[in-house]
Amino acid sequence: MRATSARRARAGWTTEGVSAFDEMSGSPPVSVRQQAMRGLAKIALERGDRRAGKAQYERILGKALIGRGPPAEHWAHSEYAWLVFEDGDLAVCKPHTHLGRRWPLPS
Predict the structure, then answer these.
(1) Which range marks the domain in which residue 26 is found?
(2) SS3 at position 98
(3) Taking the CA atoms of the chain, what radius of gyration do you get in angstroms?
(4) How far apart are CA 36 and CA 81, in angstroms?
(5) Are residues 40 and 15 located together in one domain of the fold?
(6) For residue 24, how many other CB atoms are within 10 A of its CB?
């Protein structure tokens, strides 16, 4: 059990079985689809295709925004915020940074 847990933590992914167990035990649900899209984004970024990686995060956030998927996970907001921060777009970065931290925006 411990080795499986360590492998999962290193890989940064989750299985449908783990998601189902977590949901039944009262943990907040994890979207396997969002995790898969995150994996594709990370692969694109590792290959140096920043545009494709950023587009994957935009798909995750966009689907959640229009209600065609589960709410976006906190990591989607924070990782997208970092990408737009590196692009110099602070106006887009700020709200995603706060959503990634699950803190309300300051007034």
Answers:
(1) 1-30
(2) helix
(3) 15
(4) 19
(5) no
(6) 8
- pLDDT for residue 1 is more than 50: no
Number of domains in the chain: 2
Q: Please give the model's pTM, rounded to 2 decimal places.
A: 0.64
Statement to judge: residues 8 and 37 lie in one domain: no
Q: Are residues 39 and 10 in the same domain?
A: no
Residue reference for tokens 């959640």: 64
CB distance 70 to 31 below 8 Å = yes
Coil/strand/helix, residue 48:
coil
Sign for the CA dihedral angle at 7, 75, 102, 25 comes to negative
Among residues 31, 56, 60, the alpha carbon closest in space to that of 44 is found at: 56
Do the beta carbons of residue 74 and residue 101 sit within 8 Å? yes
Q: Give 26-44 pLDDT, tens digit per residue.
A: 655 567 788 888 899 999 9
Angle at 53 between CA 8 and CA 28, to 5 degrees: 40
Residue 46, token pair as written in the block: 């590792």
- The answer on 72 and 20 residing in a single domain is no
